[in-house]
Design brief:
The chain has about 250 residues and is an alpha+beta fold. It has two domains: about 100 residues, Alpha-Beta Plaits (2-Layer Sandwich), CATH 3.30.70; about 140 residues, Pseudouridine synthase I, catalytic domain, C-terminal subdomain (Alpha-Beta Plaits). It has five helices and ten strands; from the N terminus they run βαββαβββαβββααβ. The radius of gyration is 19 Å and the shape is globular.
Length: about 250
């Protein structure tokens, strides 16, 4: 009997081409999970179960708690599925929970909010053990200016200036209800919460806020950057390694 299973997943995205299954690219999170499930379910070669993720994290981006669902016909208990998957998945992907969900549950369409965190490091020493998860800065930004810029970027806006997909045909209006910036020692972390995010949006917003912290963008320019609806007006797309999906809300 076909059942819908909900998966909670953590992964280190350093060596992956992102979440989404891609032709001719073995190293994707979705692709690795689907391959293991196909083996578990004894699917014929070339056939794979469809794993639906709550979002499509980019290459190099990490996840503390990605949510996914997959329809499967198996006699295995959820705990047995979890054990099997963790046995055969690479060490940088962990299935933290498997449970039976309602037939109508859809990891992507039912999501009502997401929290992302972008992490920076600035200090005299090097972040040897965190180097794959933070962006190391060569100069110290002004945290107050970053907070001012972040405040101006929250709300319901057309975020086209912060979209990495120049061919986006769907609406680029989103709600970002909070951007919280915290500093602890040499680490600066920015937490973004919103109903949904465009391609590269958090990384571009992070780059824009960082430039405001450097004084390369004046905070009073932020509303104009949003109103421009032009990617060329916003800051750089920061590397994926500093970004982590923290939580998905339902």
């Amino acid at each position: 009997m076909l059942k819908n299973y909900k998966l909670l997943i953590s992964y280190d995205g350093s060596r992956f081409f992102g979440w989404e299954h891609q032709p001719n690219k073995e190293w994707t999170i979705q692709g690795k999970i689907e391959t293991v499930l196909a083996k578990m379910l004894d699917f014929p070669e070339g056939k794979i179960p469809k794993v639906i993720g709550a979002g499509r994290t980019d290459a190099g981006v990490h996840a503390k708690e990605m949510v996914a669902n997959v329809n499967m016909d198996t006699s295995m208990e959820p705990e047995e599925i979890q054990t099997y998957m963790n046995k055969y998945l690479p060490e940088d992907i962990s299935i933290n929970q498997v449970r039976i969900a309602s037939d109508r549950f859809h990891a992507r369409y039912n999501a009502v909010g997401k929290t992302y965190c972008y992490s920076f490091y600035y200090g005299e020493s090097k972040p040897v053990f965190d180097r794959k998860y933070v962006l190391t800065l060569d100069r110290k930004p002004n945290i107050d200016k970053m907070k001012e810029a972040a405040e101006l970027m929250t709300g319901k806006h057309d975020y086209k200036s912060f979209c990495g997909n120049s061919h986006m045909k769907k609406s680029t209006v989103r709600i970002v209800d909070s951007i919280e910036i915290k500093q602890k020692g040499p680490y600066i972390r920015m937490y973004f919460h919103g109903t949904g995010f465009l391609q590269n949006m958090v990384r571009i917003m992070s780059g824009t806020i960082l430039l405001a912290g450097y004084g390369d963008i004046k905070t009073e320019e932020i509303p104009g950057i949003i109103e421009a609806k032009d990617r060329n007006f916003a800051g750089p797309t920061l590397p994926g390694k500093g970004l982590m999906l923290i939580k998905v809300d339902y």
